[in-house]
Specification:
Blueprint: E1 12-14, E2 20-22, E3 31-36, H1 43-61, E4 64-69, H2 74-84, E5 90-92, H3 97-102, E6 107-109, E7 123-125, E8 128-132, E9 138-143, H4 153-166
Parallel strand pairs: 3-4, 4-5
Antiparallel strand pairs: 1-2, 3-8, 6-7, 8-9
Amino acid sequence: MLMPRQPVPALDLPTLTDRRFVLADEQPTLFTMLVFYRGLHCPICAKYLLELERLLPEFAQRGVGAVAISSDTAQRAAAMAEKLKATQLRFAYGLDLAAARDWGLYVSTSRGKTSIGIDEPARFSEPGLFLVRPDGSLYYGAVQTMPFARPNFSELLGALDFVVKSDYPARGEYDGPL
């Protein structure tokens, strides 16, 4: 299990811009936001990432860099970016499912075609959202077993304002005896 205030697993993935996403090389003012999504086959993911694309300037103003990550192939990741007409959001792809598990993500098996007629991959990770400090430690994490009920980006922006104003620490770090 990932623990707040502790180092997160390494990530080094290809992106659609021919530059690699290397988490250790990120230098945000406040956080790097990792948005793990299910893949091209997921219509809820598309809607979610579209909202993130729209709000990216707001996150950037708060010192938060973002990347969307999936286990999709380059072709499927490019199709998702094209579908969204994304111009700002970075897309990293090829997430190994063992690495997904290291991040605490759930893994699902294919049920064939989705409601939008796209085949699910044989296996893929379910959604997760993480805020990682510049020192590589976990500040916030949320994982889902289903494609719905994800953290709301507008609410997250408000929470970030509170975090900065109050110097609010990462919570959930206690792992001692109960």
